Amino acid sequence: MGARGPLIALVAGEASGDNLGAALIDALRVRYPTAEFVAVAGPRMRAAGCEVIAASEELAVMGLAEILRHLGRLLVLRRRVTRELLARRPDVFIGIDAPEFNLGLARRLKAAGLRTVQYVSPQVWAWRQGRVHDIARACDRILCLLPFEPAFYARYGIEARFVGHPLADQFPLRADRAAARQALCIDADAEVVAILPGSRAGEVSRLARPFAAAARWLAARRPGVQFVAPLTTAATRAMFEAAWAESAPGLAVQVREGGSRAVLAAADVVLVASGTATLETLLTQRPMVVAYRLAPLTAFVLRRLGLVKVEHFAQANLLVGRRAVPEFFQEQATPEALGAALLRWLEAARAPDDAPLARELARVRTEFEAVHLDLRRDGAALAASAVAELLEEPR
After folding, report:
1. Are residues 276 and 317 in the same domain?
2. CA separation for the pair 166, 379 (Å, rounded)
3. 248 and 323 share a domain?
4. 206-227 burial: b if 16+ Cβ within 10 Å, else e
5. Is 96 a domain residue?
6. How many domains, in total, are found in the chain?
7. What is Dmax (Cα atoms) for the chain?
8. Is residue 234, in this structure, part of any structural domain at all?
């Protein structure tokens, strides 16, 4: 590696990958103060001091239909990134999430003699399990955020390492509801529903209308309930506001650009798109209703070919090991179903402590706290240690 320190390449997809990448860069700098970083990155990784060769937002697509629609652009981008990294020959390549993009890139780089790491295991345990051997061939290290993932790889004789989840380190064990409400100018006694329809434009386009209609359904039965919606970008905010005006005309909603952690802390219950936001909701110990809508072609293929292998898709339910919170897939995510599930949680929060609904809510919060503690491993530092081990191995 020489006196200059290692050259480390990273490719992160969308906001959650950008957050993980920034924390990992900071942890790697502790070990390698003179390290240089080159990356497909978002604003947080850029602020952490990496050279950006492309924006992580360019990778923010999900599902078969979406990938097919953007395939040409993604292939051009991957060829460009591959050429750049083969020319610069980093000491290690770290793909952060975005497996459809990163695993093909890692395979090319590993074939050229570069060390490769996949940080965030693809959900191979959930669907398309046949990919597991391709992942092993592409990667020298597989770093898992969820505790049950290494056991899945072990069934195939593949070593993967659980490093904990950096988000669990960042979230306090007790969210300060009063401070969050004060910051958001929300009355301390109000009933508050947080609306999180996703970070990608595709997610928001499919979920904003049913979420808004669910809020309208709930407000008709729970007068005075307040709604707050944090959106990750100006574009998704505009998309959400247009959908809300169409599906919940006249219903007030506080729309914010960012600040999801404060919104979650302030909420009584959360209506959330399946993804990283469900984990953030769990870490805030808030009850939630989870929805997942894919493009119709993607959903059809998954069902037709029987590619889904898990009972639950909500990360909270997977981590708890049971259906702790309601989850609705595709056409199940109707305004009535979502609204009724939200109403049940609101009733639970106001029920006497010995009522069945209140006991159910208390159980969920206890389970969420246990998961939080299990995931709290100083994840960025553990991931940096695993990368450092690989860097120090003789070639």
Report:
1. yes
2. 5
3. yes
4. bbbbbbbbbbbbbbeeeeebbb
5. yes
6. 2
7. 67
8. yes
Task: For residue 41, count other CB atoms closer than 10 A to its CB.
Answer: 28
Distance of CA 247 to the CA centre of its chain: 27
CA atoms of 362 and 364, how far apart (whole Å): 5
CATH of the domain at 291: 3.40.50.2000
| 388 and 362 together in one domain | no
User: CB neighbours of 308 closer than 8 A, spacing ≥ 6?
Assistant: 126, 127, 302
Q: Say yes or no: 102 and 185 in one domain.
A: no
Containing structural domain, residue 181: 177-375
| Residue 39 neighbours by CB distance under 10 Å | 26
Distance (Å, whole) CA 23 – CA 45: 8
Q: Which residues pair with 9 in a beta bridge?
A: 38, 93
- Alpha carbon distance 274, 213 (integer Å): 18
The phi, psi pair for 376, rounded to 5°, reads -85, 90
Identify which of 57, 48, 89, 25 has the alpha carbon closest to the alpha carbon of residue 233. Answer: 57
How far apart CA 270 and CA 241 sit, in angstroms, is 18
Do 348 and 199 belong to one domain? yes
Q: Which of 237, 230, 329, 338 is nearest to 284 (CA)?
A: 230
Per-residue confidence of the chain (395 residues) as pLDDT tens digits?
446 799 999 999 877 889 899 999 999 999 999 999 999 999 999 999 999 999 987 776 544 445 556 667 788 888 999 999 999 999 999 999 988 899 999 999 999 999 999 999 988 876 677 789 899 999 999 999 999 999 999 988 888 999 999 899 999 999 999 999 999 999 999 999 999 999 888 899 999 999 999 999 999 999 999 999 999 889 999 999 999 999 999 999 999 988 999 999 999 999 999 988 999 999 999 999 999 887 666 655 655 555 455 567 788 999 999 999 999 988 899 999 999 999 999 999 999 999 999 999 999 999 999 999 999 999 999 999 999 999 998 87
Nearest residue to 118 via CA among 134, 265, 183, 126: 134
Q: How many angstroms separate the first and last alpha carbons of the chain?
A: 12
